[in-house]
Amino acid sequence: MSQATLGDDELFGEAANEMRADVESSLEEAWEALPAADEIWETDAENVLGVLNGLKSALDTGDAEDHLRDAKKWYMMGERADAFDDADDLEAEIAEVESAIEDVSAASEQVGDLTATIPALRGTLQNAGPSDEADDEDEDDEAEAEEEAEEEE
Question: Which of 52, 65, 60, 56 is closest to 35 using CA atoms?
């Protein structure tokens, strides 16, 4: 069938199908760009800072936001053109991907805050309490007191 014999309705239907396929494809790519559950759950780090750095890297959304943007763009075009017979599933999946990206981004920010805080906290705790010099002086004072007590006997 040549292009000249296709009617407007057929072309519009074909374009609508392609637009829906573009939205679905962009959503699939957005899901694939998000980290896998095991990537953020498992670790082989030796300390907390290593765990946090690994988690921060794992919480990268990659190109998910760009793919979501494409999906939303094509979805909006299709909706405005009234090209979709039923697009509730697309709208729901767009919202689901958007929510997942927001959750991953929020977790990434929290891990970033912890990554910056933990080394400082470790330093604070290492320096907290009486210093080693004070401990040494206390031990010297105790030793002197014991010697004096022995001399008095």
Answer: 60
| The length of the chain, given as a count of residues | 153
- Segment 103-120, tens digit of pLDDT: 999 999 999 999 999 999
Is 78 within 8 Å of 87 (Cβ atoms)? yes
CB 90 within 8 A of CB 24: yes
Q: Which two tokens stand for residue 25?
A: 């494809």
pTM metric for this prediction: 0.74
